[in-house]
Amino acid sequence: MRQPLLFLIPVFCGLTASAGGFDTGPQGARILGLGGASTAYINSIAGLSVNPGLLSQWGDSLTRLSFGGIGQLRRSSFIGQDTYQRTDQELAVQPGGYFYATRALNKRVTLGLSLTTPYGYHTKWPDTWEGRAVIQESRLNTYFVQPTVAFKLNENFGAGVGFIYAYGKYSQRRALGQYDDPSANAQLSASGSGYGLSAGLYGRTGDNLSFGISYRTGVNLKLKDGTSTYAGVPARDAAQLPASTGLNTQINLPNVVSVGIADRINKQMLLTFDFTLTGWSNLDSLKLDLAANGSQPARRVNQPRRYEDAMTFRIGAEYQVNPKLTLLAGVRYDETPIRDEFINPEFIDANRLGVSAGLVYQLTQRLNLEGAYSFEYGQQRIARTNPLSAQVANIGGSYRLAVQTASLGVAMAF
């Protein structure tokens, strides 16, 4: 029975490799312009996706809305260690979006709702590239719905808590390199949901200095009723690689701790700083439950990942040029949680340095247009194959990574 399981490992290996560092960035145009430094930032209700405690500061009689779109383009290049041939990923934009709404019940209690797309990616390599037996195309999409309630404890402090419902979809396609037929391939798809909580505090020591701290639990996406399919398999291997097999698994999205400070330097300038610790270490392994099919009994494949927790540092600046125009800028440094031995071309990640810029233009007193752009560049990663470990499907070579994210949105109050 061991041989059929070895055939399955490359199909699912990328699923685990993808579960590291695939956040899609700040969930709002204005906070994207700040580089994501928004744990103590109250000038946009998009901050409640990071810190529910911020919601306590919008306790007036206005209903506030903020919504927009996000597009992320991850470009990776690969140079094979044996062929020295360079391959670039094909263009594949990861779409996303956000929606926020807040309304105060009274001066002490405020309600909020957020719909965001915080995790995801779309990787697409040429169908004939040298790593086609590892991955050709893969996609992950997640959608978070978070109703939130916040309480204003006094004039300087507030607290909030939110319930998270998450839904995710995953798909993957790769070539079966052991066959001469170029149409022979393996595909899988699965979807499922999970739950979590988010809580945060906001405080200020005066008119100019404020702070925030937040915690979001991990969300375990239980992917059920998925399918693994094989096409173009010769008849001699059809029993080992059946046309369709049921699949259940789970993707563990990490817990996140954020601490932030905001300091108003003067009437025009505001500086923000965030430190984030993301608990990727809960992705120690992935268990894949495969349904019985023909002569193959139901079985479980266990793959070790041993990911590491990762830190992020963010600095943002907001400058009001005039009553209608505000400029934004940010710098961020992201650590990768993926160890060298688990680098995989389905989702390339590296320690990244990023910069961002944005603007807010006031169309009317209660209507703003917001836009932002960020660019991140990752350090080179070296992947080496290990013939003694069949649990990690890979191809030897070096990878480079660049990530571009753009967002355009509207904020209003009435």
Automatic annotation (TrEMBL):
<keyword id="KW-0998">Cell outer membrane</keyword>
<dbReference type="GO" id="GO:0015483">
    <property type="term" value="F:long-chain fatty acid transporting porin activity"/>
</dbReference>
<keyword id="KW-0472">Membrane</keyword>
<feature type="signal peptide">
    <location>
        <begin position="1"/>
        <end position="19"/>
    </location>
</feature>
<keyword id="KW-0732">Signal</keyword>
<comment type="similarity">
    <text>Belongs to the OmpP1/FadL family.</text>
</comment>
<dbReference type="Pfam" id="PF03349">
    <property type="entry name" value="Toluene_X"/>
</dbReference>
<dbReference type="GO" id="GO:0009279">
    <property type="term" value="C:cell outer membrane"/>
</dbReference>
<dbReference type="InterPro" id="IPR005017">
    <property type="entry name" value="OMPP1/FadL/TodX"/>
</dbReference>
<protein>
    <submittedName>
        <fullName>Outer membrane protein transport protein</fullName>
    </submittedName>
</protein>
<keyword id="KW-1134">Transmembrane beta strand</keyword>
<keyword id="KW-0812">Transmembrane</keyword>
